[in-house]
Amino acid sequence: MRAEWEPDELIDAWTLTGGDWDLVANKAGVTRLGLAVMLKFYEIEGRFPACREEVPQAAVAYLGSLVTVEPALFAKYSWRGLSPLFWSHVNPYGRFRLDMDTRLDLTAA
Q1: Which structural domain range is residue 50 located in?
Q2: Range in 19-23, 56-60, 80-84 the model is least confident about
Q3: Domain for residue 40, yes or no?
Q4: Mean of the pLDDT values across residues 74-93?
Q5: How many domains in the chain?
Q6: Torsion (CA) 12, 14, 18, 23 in degrees, nearest 10
Q7: Considering the domain boundaries, does residue 15 fall inside one?
Q8: Rounded Cα gap, residues 53 and 55, in angstroms
Q9: Which among 2, 43, 66, 87 counts the fewest CB atoms within 10 Å?
Q10: Cα–Cα distance between 54 and 3 in angstroms, integer?
Q11: The predicted structure's pLDDT at residue 51
C-alpha cells in the first residue's frame, strides 16, 4: 500500500459506500473508525493490513472525518482478535438469505 495519496485519490478509493455504512452504523468511537479502515483497505488491497503502520495516515484522517471519529484514536484500535471481527462483518460472496419455509418450484425448470 502506498503511503502518499492525493485528495481526489482519497475520495475515489477510501469513501465509504452504502453497504459500508450499514456495517459501521452500529459501531462507535475507535471501533467505528477501525472497521471503516479495515473495510476499505480490504477493498483496495484484497487483504487486511498486518499492522497499523501499513495503513496510510491520510486515509485514516479522511475516514475519521467521514465517520466523525478523531483519527488519533486509531492508535488505540485493538488489533487482538481481529479475525472474528472481520468475518462477522465481511462476506466476500455477498449476503444470502435462506427461507427454509418455502420450497423451490422445480416444475418450471
Answers
A1: 7-89
A2: 80-84
A3: yes
A4: 65
A5: 1
A6: 170
A7: yes
A8: 5
A9: 2
A10: 8
A11: 81
3-state secondary structure the chain: CCCCCCHHHHHHHHCCCHHHHHHHCCCCHHHHHHHHHHHHHHHHHCCCCCCHHHCCHHHHHHHHHHHCCCHHHHHHCCCCCHHHHHHHHCCCCCCCCCCCCCCCCCCCC
Mean pLDDT throughout 26-34? 90
Whole-prediction pTM value? 0.70
* Identity of the residue numbered 27: K
Residue with grid cell 459501521, as numbered in its chain: 24
- Average pLDDT of the chain to the nearest whole number: 83
- At residue 33, what is the residue type? L
In a domain, 26, yes or no: yes
Cell numbers linked to 2: 502506498
